[in-house]
């Protein structure tokens, strides 16, 4: 049997795509390996969001090339595929820069992989034209055993692409225009996942709350409506979604946060900056006060909400005073979790052309200060759950024998002692201690009996 090794970089969309590629290649006789040396096919599923991520691809390709040469010396062939967003953005350039690469395939084209691999015997290929057909129609249905090997939580892509054109971001160029999958397809996938024991679905999309897929009745469904329908799927106990844009938090979605118990009280809602001038230059289409008011509205419906965000420091032209406005917004709103980035100029995006680039030194100083504040908030949030009674979805054995590990509704890793509980169960625990990355708990009761 041939073996495939897939390495995925970047976001959850890539994690999902990597799984679907291995599912597809399984039907072509490839089994997955975690050891690159034994792979007949190496796929790098790349990320283009920041320069560092994109650069990693070429250093990794250097290593893969050496491996290919070593295997060749032993008479074994290795195919190298570059997939994902660097493939989409750089296309032919990758073949030019790294001669060991056989195939370059974009995120909307990987359903062509079996054909591309066959054709790659004769020539090196690039497939990055956005296809007319939908790749999801050409991917095999999810197999129960494959789902089970991935655990009780799953990502489900419901939407791809982005029409927002934030001036720093490559996504609208690499992933293309916004497309929502039809409700029936999503439901079918959700039912297959649930049937194989999945308890928690994270609906994913580059702009997931802009979802507007076609419903069974022919009308366009919002994310709020879709979430309500998915909450009815037997076995599915928890729903999450990411990543959202503040402009697309409509009333139906906010209402769902208040009255849909399966929808976890956790929201990743990137704000990027607290300065109105920078938000405008980023083309985010909202002010910092609009963000504050939006959070207030959501918290009114769901007072228990844990909030997370992405931030960019050192966007071109960002002054010290404007950075302080980001610090103030963070202090005002309070985040349970966050991701912080130094602005990275991306080729082809409007902000990369601006003459007012901020120095690395200033970016580093701002990043450190912001991270410090956000880390204090994260720790405070985690410590605030000590003494609370929370439901935990059990995901895997804990670090030590006799321990079991899962996640709280707020996505915090939780560990406790138990040998009587099964992965997939939801149990009620009391949090007794907060470590720096996980919470420690004692068991109170089993809140849920639908375990797979
Ligand atoms: N530089 C730095 N961070 C970026 N992001 C997107 N593009 C860039 C860039 N050019 C960040 C944003 C986004 C997250 C996925 O990545 O914060 O929300
Ligand atoms: Fe990029 Fe903005 Fe679209 Fe998010 S909303 S993917 S940051 S362009």
UniProtKB/TrEMBL annotation:
<dbReference type="Pfam" id="PF04055">
    <property type="entry name" value="Radical_SAM"/>
</dbReference>
<comment type="function">
    <text>Catalyzes the methylthiolation of N6-(dimethylallyl)adenosine (i(6)A), leading to the formation of 2-methylthio-N6-(dimethylallyl)adenosine (ms(2)i(6)A) at position 37 in tRNAs that read codons beginning with uridine.</text>
</comment>
<keyword id="KW-0963">Cytoplasm</keyword>
<dbReference type="InterPro" id="IPR020612">
    <property type="entry name" value="Methylthiotransferase_CS"/>
</dbReference>
<keyword id="KW-0808">Transferase</keyword>
<feature type="domain" description="MTTase N-terminal">
    <location>
        <begin position="2"/>
        <end position="122"/>
    </location>
</feature>
<feature type="domain" description="TRAM">
    <location>
        <begin position="383"/>
        <end position="445"/>
    </location>
</feature>
<dbReference type="InterPro" id="IPR038135">
    <property type="entry name" value="Methylthiotransferase_N_sf"/>
</dbReference>
<dbReference type="InterPro" id="IPR023404">
    <property type="entry name" value="rSAM_horseshoe"/>
</dbReference>
<dbReference type="GO" id="GO:0046872">
    <property type="term" value="F:metal ion binding"/>
</dbReference>
<keyword id="KW-0479">Metal-binding</keyword>
<dbReference type="InterPro" id="IPR005839">
    <property type="entry name" value="Methylthiotransferase"/>
</dbReference>
<feature type="binding site">
    <location>
        <position position="166"/>
    </location>
    <ligand>
        <name>[4Fe-4S] cluster 2</name>
    </ligand>
</feature>
<dbReference type="GO" id="GO:0005829">
    <property type="term" value="C:cytosol"/>
</dbReference>
<dbReference type="GO" id="GO:0035597">
    <property type="term" value="F:tRNA-2-methylthio-N(6)-dimethylallyladenosine(37) synthase activity"/>
</dbReference>
<protein>
    <recommendedName>
        <fullName>tRNA-2-methylthio-N(6)-dimethylallyladenosine synthase</fullName>
        <ecNumber>2.8.4.3</ecNumber>
    </recommendedName>
</protein>
<feature type="binding site">
    <location>
        <position position="162"/>
    </location>
    <ligand>
        <name>[4Fe-4S] cluster 2</name>
    </ligand>
</feature>
<dbReference type="InterPro" id="IPR058240">
    <property type="entry name" value="rSAM_sf"/>
</dbReference>
<feature type="binding site">
    <location>
        <position position="169"/>
    </location>
    <ligand>
        <name>[4Fe-4S] cluster 2</name>
    </ligand>
</feature>
<keyword id="KW-0819">tRNA processing</keyword>
<keyword id="KW-0004">4Fe-4S</keyword>
<keyword id="KW-0949">S-adenosyl-L-methionine</keyword>
<dbReference type="InterPro" id="IPR007197">
    <property type="entry name" value="rSAM"/>
</dbReference>
<dbReference type="InterPro" id="IPR002792">
    <property type="entry name" value="TRAM_dom"/>
</dbReference>
<comment type="similarity">
    <text>Belongs to the methylthiotransferase family. MiaB subfamily.</text>
</comment>
<feature type="binding site">
    <location>
        <position position="47"/>
    </location>
    <ligand>
        <name>[4Fe-4S] cluster 1</name>
    </ligand>
</feature>
<feature type="binding site">
    <location>
        <position position="85"/>
    </location>
    <ligand>
        <name>[4Fe-4S] cluster 1</name>
    </ligand>
</feature>
<feature type="binding site">
    <location>
        <position position="11"/>
    </location>
    <ligand>
        <name>[4Fe-4S] cluster 1</name>
    </ligand>
</feature>
<keyword id="KW-0411">Iron-sulfur</keyword>
<dbReference type="InterPro" id="IPR013848">
    <property type="entry name" value="Methylthiotransferase_N"/>
</dbReference>
<dbReference type="GO" id="GO:0051539">
    <property type="term" value="F:4 iron, 4 sulfur cluster binding"/>
</dbReference>
<keyword id="KW-0408">Iron</keyword>
<dbReference type="Pfam" id="PF00919">
    <property type="entry name" value="UPF0004"/>
</dbReference>
<feature type="domain" description="Radical SAM core">
    <location>
        <begin position="148"/>
        <end position="380"/>
    </location>
</feature>
<comment type="subunit">
    <text>Monomer.</text>
</comment>
<dbReference type="Pfam" id="PF01938">
    <property type="entry name" value="TRAM"/>
</dbReference>
<dbReference type="InterPro" id="IPR006638">
    <property type="entry name" value="Elp3/MiaA/NifB-like_rSAM"/>
</dbReference>
<dbReference type="InterPro" id="IPR006463">
    <property type="entry name" value="MiaB_methiolase"/>
</dbReference>
